[in-house]
């Protein structure tokens, strides 16, 4: 059995340099001897109580790793290091848009986390309670995550670019008792008033009892007495004993949206998750003790959770943390930070690379980037032009590009070149090979494996420790979304091909999920917000390919009786979406039409709208009920030209 997997999955040793064979050995061991392999790899963290079993798959697809093991993520990120020579090592160098800088050591971070943990306990929070964190990229954000982890409080970070409705929805679904936020966030020299967004969200929810506010931008804010407290007033120095968490107790919930239903609260646990992310970071980036590592993502997304906060701290790495836009105040911001702090490992996204590439070579060329040794990307497939620019202009053709393919649900990297185990020859645009423990296969609609170079669904055949525990409050949805199309196998939702050499190439989403600047955007959330406006009858949202952002959002709507189409109305719709859902969710274009193409049973045919809009063949439209609507979309497109 294994031989067939190996020969299907991987190239043979001979075709690669000797170092690649180390990867092959580790990979083979992870498949042949899974329990022994993970028993060894689990020692990357410290356990208060050893687990009874490595893997329990008796209730699949609810796989449970390190059964009955007890540990604590905050303890592993902090207490463990301060007993060693990492005590005074820098954990974070924080840099703001305006160039302010703060440095915190592992011991300093430990002190801060304990002080907040004590504050949270004083306010009555207890193990098993839920908290929403809605914060900019400031040091108090990882401190809040770690303080919650320390006392067993499940946290739910909401990206600070989301608006009041989106925040309220997530606060409700996660049943948060508390919100930790800041007065504001800096965005391109302006203040985004986070606290007033929280105030509006709390009008829509009832479960929140208290709000903690960090002073960051010092703008004037409303403080509700009895409910709102300043961070500095509630923290208390001292030591808080870390809770002994079960491997499979939830650590956090992070929402991700799709094409149907509400956003899904992806739940990750206290055991498998830290084991997975720290091993994958070691394998993929191989950080050395003296390295400075910069993951230029936001803590509001899984990349920030796993690879700004937890994996680097678990491994005792020094990270750069940046609050602000990557091209502000000037397009050389990223290159300036690399030079100023001597960054060795830079992890970013294709969309960021394309944006910075647009400004031209003169910006990177005016900085000394010689400290760089490893580059990484995440979020979407990287196009060869961006890959070459990153490789040649930024990495001077001496830094490998680690293209990491994964998602919120997988906890950490799944497919990526493993620098720490032995690199394969890189091919621009391919995430290359699976990391140990990951067993990918590419299937057609009938569940048959496709031939080499043929496109299919990428599916993972075996569980791995980083797989989510479930969807919050919705075990059924967990099974239906991820384990139903192909029974007991994890459906990633992307198309992929495997080439003749066994390299895996990701080809984008197999569903209608949009990737806007690398972020997964749920069309359904935007459609819901549109149709909940009193003027709008129906809405259809889809993505238009964009050379920098990946997708841009396009909406077609029909109006209710009594409303007239006008540019002002469109502006008003956009403004409302910005307030409710946040700036990243605002459609670039909203078109008002008299009718939308529908099937005879009344389902809006987004596929047809998109095809007509993009001037492609709309495919089968025999089930279409109202053909005139297609002409209307064509006319709307004509008007744009
Ligand atoms: C989706 C997951 C993983 C953290 C950031 C996004 C796409 C992600 C790659 C890559 C091709 C990629 C997939 C995936 N994706 N990385 N290296 N190559 N596609 O997390 O919001 O959960 O989105 O992002 O479509 O399914 P996410």
UniProtKB/TrEMBL annotation:
It is an enzyme of class 6 (ligase). It holds the Pfam family AMP-binding_C. Keywords: ATP-binding, Ligase, Nucleotide-binding. It comes from the Archaea. Its EC number is 6.2.1.1. The keyword ATP-binding applies. GO terms for biological process: acetyl-CoA biosynthetic process from acetate; carbon fixation by 3-hydroxypropionate cycle. One of its GO terms (molecular function) is acetate-CoA ligase activity. Residues 84-464 form the AMP-dependent synthetase/ligase domain. Belongs to the ATP-dependent AMP-binding enzyme family. PANTHER family: ACETYL-COENZYME A SYNTHETASE. This is Acetate--CoA ligase. The lineage of its organism: Archaea, Methanobacteriati, Thermoplasmatota, Thermoplasmata, Thermoplasmatales.
